[in-house]
Fold these 3 entries.
Entry 1:
Amino acid sequence: MTGVDRLDDGPLRVGSRAKLRQPRLPAAVWEVTHLVEGREFTWEAKGPGVRTIGRHEVVADGSGSKVTLSIEQAGPMGAVAALVWRRLTQRYVELEAESLDQRVSRTSSA
C-alpha cells in the first residue's frame, strides 16, 4: 500500500471507513461490514459493477495464532475483475501477510 487514510475517528467498528491507495489500482474507500473485536473483520469496497470483499481472521493456534486473509470479487463485473486483477491481488495479499508476520514477530521477540 502506498497510503491509508482513516475517514473517521475512534476504534475500528462496523461502518468505519478508510481510503486505500495501492500501486496499479484505483484508490478505493473500504467500509467495515462485519467485526468480531480482536478476532476478525470484513470490509468492502465498491466500484462500477464490482464489490470487493476483504476478510481478515486471527485464530489461536497452540502457542501462536493463524491469520487468514481473503479477497472476493462480487457483482455483475466481479468475475471479470477477479480475472483481470488476479495476480496483482494475490501478490498484495501475500505482501500483507508477510508484513503482518514481520510486525508480529518483532513484537513477540521484544
Entry 2:
Amino acid sequence: MGRIKKIKPKTYKLEIESLSYEGRGVAHLDEKVIFVSGALPGEVVLANRTFARAKFEEADVSKVLITSSKRITPKCAVFGVCGGCSFQHLSSKDQIDAKEKWLKDAFLQQAKTQPKNWLKPLQVQDWGYRRKARLGVRFVSKKDKVLVGFREKKSGWIANMDRCEILHPSIGEHLAELGNVIEKLSIKSQIPQLEVAVAENNTVLILRHLAPLNEKDRLILLDLANNLDVIFYTQSGGKDTIKPLDRAVDLIYFHPDHNIEMVFLPNDFTQVNFKLNQKMINLALNMLDLNSDDEVIDLFCGLGNFTLPIARYVKHVVGIEGDAGLIERAKGNAHRNDIQNVDFYKADLFKEVAGFEWFRGKKYNKALIDPARSGAIEIVELLFQLGVERLVYVSCNPATLARDTAKLIDIGYKLDTAAVMDMFPQTTHVESIALFKI
C-alpha cells in the first residue's frame, strides 16, 4: 500500500478575487487556483496550505491583512473549527446574495439560460432554526470528557462546543449538559451519535449505542429527559432497531395556512427549517397557480409535505415516493386531515416507471418535483409524456437543477421564474425553486 504524501507547509499572501460555490475565497498564484477557507472577495490574506494538486491548492486563512467591508464577527465561538457552518463571517443578506449568484451562474453555464423572472429570496430566521441534525458523540479519554456536537472541518474529531447557535434552542443550548450526562453512563465510550428531531410538540434524541445500556444508564437518561423536556429513543443497530427508551410520542409540524397537521417519525426526512418550509409551501402553490380542475402529480413526495397542501385546492393529486415508510405516513397524514382527493404510490423514480398504474395512460396538467441532491434527470424527460404543462421544481443543489433545466428546455419547457430560499442560514447550502411552462 502506497504511503500518503505529506503536504509541505506553505504560507501564501493572496488577493481574493471571488467566492466559490463552497463559500471559499478564490485566488490565483503561479498559474494555480487557490481555494481559501474563511476568506472573502476583496481581501488580502495570509493563508496556510492544507491540500495540493497539479492545478489547484487549498488553504486556510491565518491572518486577514486587508478586510472586506462585508466581513462581520461570527456569532459562534467555534466558527472556523466546527464543520457545521461556513458563512457566519457574512451578513444574512450577503449570504443569500451569494447563493442567488451561484444559482444564476449554474443556469448560464449548464443550461445557457436565465429565468424570465427572479423572485425575492425567501428568508425567515438566521439562528436557532435547525430542527433535524446528526450530532457526533465522543469520549476523549485524555480530557476525561464527552464531547457532543458537529465534527470539525476536514476531521473526524468532534468540535469542543458547549452550544450551537443554529440548532433549535431546545438542544442547541444544552450540548455541554448532554455531554456531562453521557459521561456518567457505563458505556460512554460506546456512543458515537445523537440524532435530533425537534417537532412543534416534542423533541426526540435518538441515542446510537454500540453496547447495551444497563438499568442505571436508563435511569440517568430518563432523568436528563425530564430536566430538558426531551424524549430519548435508542438505536443499537440499523433503522429497525430504533425504539423509545421509555415511551413513544407523535412528532408533529403544521401547515397553518392550509389547516394541515403532519405527523412524522424521529428518523423520517423532514425539512429542517419549519418556518421557511411554510413559506416555501405557499410559494410553490402560488407558482403552480392551482384551481379545482387540476390533476397534479408530486414526485419525490416524502410525507406529503407538498402533496397535502396541494390537495386542498385541486381536483386530484398523486404523490410518488420510493420509501415505503414515508408512503405509509403520507397516507396516514391524508386520513388525519380528512383529505380524500389524494393517492400515494411507492415507486423508485430512478428506474423504469412506464408500467405503474399512476403512469400508464394517465395525464396530469401540473407537477411538482422535490428530488434529492442528485436531481431528477431520469424523470424530467417523462413529464411531457404525462401531459404536464406547468412544473414547479424544488432543488437543494443548483448544479443538478441547472443540468435538469437543460433537459427540460430540450424537450420543450421554458424556464419562467426562479428564486433562492435560505433553508440553511450560516451554511453554503442552496435551496431553490423554479417554475417551468410549456
Entry 3:
Amino acid sequence: MKKNLLIVLCVIFYHYTYSQYCTSGGALSNIDSNTESVNLIGSGGSAIVYTGCPGVVGVEDQTAGQQVVLNVGNSYVAYVQFGTCGDNYAGFGEAWIDFNNNQIFETTESIGSWQGTPPTSLSAFNFTVPSMAINGNVRMRVMQSEDATSLPLDPCATFNWGSVVDFSVSLQNGVGCAGYYGDNIADAIEVAAYPYADTNSTAVCYSSYSYVYSSPDVFYLAVLDPTKDSLKVSLCDSDFDTHLSIQNTSGDVIFYNDDHAACSPHSEILFPTSGLDSVYIIVEGWNYLTGNYILTIDHDYTNSVLHLENLPENKHTYTVYPNPAVNRIHIKDVLPESIDVYSVSGSKMQVHGQNSSSVDISVLPAGIYLLEFVYKGHYFREKFVKQ
C-alpha cells in the first residue's frame, strides 16, 4: 500500500504548480510614475533602504539585497516616497506585507495607501506585526499605479505606468507551522475511518496549491471502503464561503461544489466511489477567503449513487450509446427523470434532458464528458467521447 501510494504521489506531484508570489504583473513602461524611495528600519539593526529611478518594467525584485527583520507584536514605520522618473501624473500607491506567509498579498495585509500627484510629501505607513503572523521569509510589495482609478489596488495588476517593487521580510517570534499537515498533496491528511470529522482553519500555515482559487487550501487523502458505493463530504458548518474539490489519484478533478443548496455559501458533495480506492479532498475558500471550517466525511446510506445492476429491484443493466457520439447520446433500457452533461473538470454544460432517454450534444466541442442521469431517485454517471 505504501509503495503504491508513493508512486501515486510522485505522479501527482508533476501535475501541481506550487503557489508562488505573482510576479508577471507590474508596469509596461519605465518612464513617469515610479516609487522613488522606500525606507523601513526593522529589528536588530536591519533595514530596507531603497532608491528608485530609473524605472523598471514589470516587478522589480529587490529581495536578494533588501531584507528587514520584523518581530511579531512590534510596531514599525515604512516611509515611502511615491513620485516619478519623468513627468508628474496623478496616481495611487499601496504597500503590503505577507504576514500569513501564504504568498498572497491580501487586502487585510495592506500597511498603507496613497493617492495624489507628484511631487507629494513622504508617506509614513505605521503598522504593527499581527500576533498570528507566520514565522519565515516573506515579501513586502510596494506598488504605484498611474492607471488605477481607486483604492485598494490589485497587487498582481498589470498597468501602463508606475512601478512594483518587492523586498524581503523575515518574520520572527510568530506562529510556527510545525505540526500543521495537509498543506499540499504530498502532505495530505489521511482519512481511513468513518465517520470522520476535523475542525481546522485555512487562515494560518496553509498556502494555495490547487487550481481553483488563490485562497489557501487543505488536502485530505480519503482511503475508501470498497464495500460502500458513495461518500458524502460536507463543510456546511464552516464560518466562511467554502469550496470543495474531489480529485482522483491521477490529479484529475472528478467532482466539485461551491455553494450547496442546503447550506450555501458552504459546500457539500455526495459522489459515487465505484472504481475508486482513494480520493483527494481539497478544502479552500472562495476567491481569497480564509476561515474556520468543520469537515465531515462519511459513507452515505440514504441517497447513494449506484450502478443500476446494484439496485435490488432492477436486475437488468443500461447502455449508453453511441460512444463516441456526434449529435445525440442515448440511454437504453431506462427512462431517466433527468440527464445532465459535465466536463471532466466538473463544470455542468448547457445541455440537459427531462424525462427522456437521450440528450442533444451537438453544441458541445469535441472532447471527453460525463453523462449523469437520475433514475428512480438514484444518480448514475458514465464517461463518453464527443467527436
